[in-house]
Amino acid sequence: MHTILVVDDDPTVAEVVTGYLERAGFAVDRAADGPQALRLAAGKPPSLVLLDLMLPGMDGLEVCRRLRAAGPVPVIMLTARGDEDDRILGLEIGADDYVTKPFSPRELVLRVESVLRRGRPDRGDRAGPELTAAGITLDPAARRVTKDGRALSLTLREFDLLAHLMRHPGQAIAREQLMNDVWGWEFGDLSTVTVHVRRLRGKVEDDPAAPRLIRTVWGVGYRFDVPVEEPPAPAPVAPEAPVTSATPVPVPSDGS
Question: Is the pLDDT of residue 7 over 60?
Answer without folding.
Answer: yes
